Structures are given as structure tokens and as C-alpha cells.
Amino acid sequence: MVNKIDVDISLPKYNFCYNDSPAKLDYYPPNGIIAGKGIAGNYFYPSIANEGIHQLSYSVDSTFYSFTTLFFDDFSSDKGWSFDDNYIWQRKPANITDTCEGSIDPPDDVSSSSDNYIIGNNIGGCYQPNIDKTYYAYSPILNCKNFKNVTLSFFRNLAYEGNFWDNVVIDVFNGTDWINIFKSGISNFDDRGWKKVYYDVSNYADLNDKFQVRFGIGPTDESGNYKGWNIDDFAIEGYYVNNCSFTAVKNVTVYPKPTAFAGNDINVCRNSSFYLYGSGLKSYNWTPHDQLYKINKNYVEGKALFSNNYILYGQDYYGCWAYDTISLIVLNPPNINISNDTSICFGDKISLYANGANKYYWTPNISIDNPSSDNPIVYPSTNTTYTVTGYDTSGCFSSKSVIINVVNKPNVFAGKDV
């Protein structure tokens, strides 16, 4: 069993506004992998993740090793061994013999079971003389793909004549080639009983899904025949590699990007009233307050004295802040010029003029031929002040006045006719 690793990932909060600053992720233990939308390095970026519910995860991979017997064979049943020659190699009960050079074949196996089976060379007799080549007993193919530090062990009862005359070997298959790990020496050899032997085969078996062992005998000469191989309780053991991944998951919500709208930029004539309307938010604030005399949430009024930029800011229904800017451009009124004050005789007419604007209107509309003209003719019968209002193309206006004094004509008498 693999012990669970405590893994965690956390943020300062789990509900974000779209335009919030990046939030640093905390996680445990180190050296894991952070995954999820909006992740860059060790930070969560709401604007990158975009609106919605996002799953952030932190995974830690861990490797545990557990000592395991991958394969064990006491030869009580057929587990897939194969022999080049079924006389030279056999699986059968141990059987004593005293006709060979050296010590006798063992009368019993070493297994705790009562089967007494082993594998060996001509069990109950000597190995054959004049074997022409090496004959092998092959183990089944052993999948060591997930194993490390693999060892081979077995009980051996072996005797042979030195390798000038007879040969015995152990080879292992590394997935590509057969590699020798034991061969008979130059001197005669004789086990006088069962002996457990171990071989470190990690260089060949670790992570190898085609590992195999073979025992060989031969060539042999015509004389000096010994008992050869007797093998029992064959075992392949190692550390099983447990690759585990532990993951912590947190859900994070990013609210939609708020939209504040302060309105389109406006042009206003100097000294005129102006009105601003905001939308898209739950709460509204305006800054600066210059020229504003009425502030009512999303609606403000002011008097245009100079150009200015106004910022609308506030929160939406999720508590997310947004802002927008509107430009107020104050237009100057037209600079108009008109006729100077003057006097006329009663019953006379006079032409007035005005310039500097696009449209004009004269008041009062009395004793004037065209009050919308820039050059009207007036003929007042009494002293009269005429005021002209001039408008430019933006609708801004200014006014000026001219005084017309009406003078009575002199009463001239030259006397009676004579």
C-alpha cells in the first residue's frame, strides 16, 4: 500500500473580478505541477482566464518502492520452462545417484512442499559425455518493466569438471542480447549439498519487460562426468516502482468584465448648463467635482466655465470596479461687432450692421425691415436700443446693443411773404 501524500493549492480568494490584479498561488509540497486556465508561473491572472468557473489543479508525482517477488518456482508445477534437450535437461523429482565423479545427486529438494521436484541435468544420473555444444534450460520471459534492483536467487547443487573439459554457464537476456553472469572455472567444482546463491541482475533486468534466465551445460568431454546442475526454488525479486500522482483541485470564479459608460464626449457653450449620464454600474461616483452643482448617482449637472475631463467610476453587482472618462469641451461664444451708437432725425432711416457670427436676430422687432439680417435698416420714431444676438455654427451666442437717438427736425420760419 502506498501512503497518500497531502497536496494542497490555495489562493487569497476564489471569486475574482475580471480586472483584478494577479493573485499568487500557494501550494504544498514543492516541485509539483500547476495547471489551469489563467496560470502563468505561480500566479493566477483573472483577465487571462476570462469570465467563468475555472478549475485549478496542483499535482505531485511520487515514486514508492516496495520489495516484491516477481517470480518464484519450486518446480512443483510447469511454469513455462523450456529445454533444448529433454534428456540433458529435466524437470522431475530429485533422485540420488552414486555413479558420478564427485558427490552424489541430492535425494531431496529444498522446498517446503512435498513435491520434491527440481530441474537439472539427467536427474538421478551424471551429465552425458561428449555433449557437442551448450544445451540450455530457459526460464519463461519475465516482465520486469516496473522493477528496479532486481536479483536472481536459487538453491544450487552443482558439480562439474573444469572448463578445459566440461562447461556450465548462466546467462541473462537484457532485452537485446544474452549476457553471461556465471561460467565454470578451470578447476573441478563440487557442491556437497544445497547452497543458496544470489546474483545482482539489476543492470539487465531493471525496467526490462523481456528479461529471461538460462542455465547451460556443454560442451563436455568423454570422461570425468559429474552430476551437473540441480536447481530448486528459483526466484526473481526486486523493488516494484509505484508511480503515483496526487492532485488538489480548487474552483475559481471570474466575474464578467464590468462596463462603465460615461457617455460620449460633449461640446458645450461657455456658461451653459451641461448634463452627464452614466450607465452599466450599481454604484456611481464622478470626479472631479469642478463645475458640478448637482450630483445624483449616475446623473450630474454643471455649468460650463472651462474644458475638463470627468471620470465615472463605481462597482457592478459583483462588487467589481470599472471606470470611464468623458471629455467636456467648452466653446467660446462668437465675438461680434456692431454699429456704434448714433442719432438720426425724426422720420429718417439708418442701416445697422453686425459681423463675427453666422446668424443674427435683432430686438425689438419694431421699425426694422429684417430682424434676421446682419445689415438691417431701422427707422425708429423715438429713441430706441436695438440688441443683436449672434449665433455660431455650434449654437453658441453673444449679444451687443446699439442706441439710436431720434432728434426732432428744427422748426424753421422764414417769415410771411411780402
Report mean pLDDT, rounded to a whole number: 94
Radius of gyration: 56 Å
The percentage of residues in β strands lies in over 45%
Helix/strand class = mainly beta
What is the count of β-strands? 35
Brief write-up:
2% of the residues lie in helices and 47% in strands.
List keywords for this structure.
mainly beta; 2 helices; 2% helix; eight-stranded mixed beta sheet; single chain; five-stranded antiparallel beta sheet; 418 residues
Task: Explain this structure.
The chain has 418 residues and is mainly beta. It is built from 2 helices and 35 strands. The chain has helices spanning 46-49, 202-205, and strands at 8-10, 15-16, 23-24, 26-28, 33-35, 39-40, 43-44, 52-73, 82-83, 89-93, 117-121, 135-138, 147-156, 159-160, 168-173, 178-183, 189-190, 195-200, 212-217, 230-254, 266-269, 273-277, 285-287, 292-296, 299-303, 308-315, 321-331, 337-338, 342-345, 350-351, 354-355, 359-363, 377-378, 384-391, 397-407. Strands 2, 5, 8, 10, 11, 13, 18 and 20 form an 8-stranded mixed beta sheet that branches. The protein has a 5-stranded antiparallel beta sheet with strand order 9-12-19-15-16, with no helix packed on it. The protein has a 4-stranded mixed beta sheet with strand order 21-27-26-23, with no helix packed on it. A hairpin with a 5-residue loop joins β34 (384-391) and β35. The protein starts with 7 loop residues before the first strand and ends in an 11-residue tail after the last strand. The model has no long low-confidence stretch (mean pLDDT 94).
